Structure formats: structure tokens, C-alpha cells
Amino acid sequence: MQNEGDRRIRDELQRMPYEPLLPVERKLILGSLVLGAVLLILLLWTTRG
Fold it and tell me: What residues does each domain of the chain span?
């Protein structure tokens, strides 16, 4: 059962136009994921040594 707030949010999301990611946004996302993976590997390597 949905309340009025849920319906308004759903309607507002449906009215929003589709906006693809810019190339710089894709690079930032990829860079963040790679940095996170590298730091996680570094953390695991240092704690096991």
C-alpha cells in the first residue's frame, strides 16, 4: 500500500528526462572504483604481512 509521498516521488521520477553520463563523469566513476580496489588490496596485503 503506497502513501501520497510515494506516489508523488514516483510521478516526479517518471517526469525526469533521461540524461546520459558525460565522458568526464564516466572517467571519475572508473577512477574511483579502481582506486578503491587498489586501496583494498593494499590494506589486505599490509594486514597479512
Answer: 18-49
Exposure letters 2-41 (e unless 16+ CB within 10 A, then b): eeeeeeeeeeeeeeeeeeeeeeeeeeeeeeeeeeeeeeee
Which of residues 22 and 49 earns the better pLDDT score? 22
Read out DSSP for 1-49?
Answer: ---HHHHHHHHHHHHSPP-PPPHHHHHHHHHHHHHHHHHHHHHHHHHH-
Name which of 33, 12, 31, 14 is nearest 23 in CA terms: 31
| Prediction pTM value | 0.64
C-alpha cell at position 28: 571519475
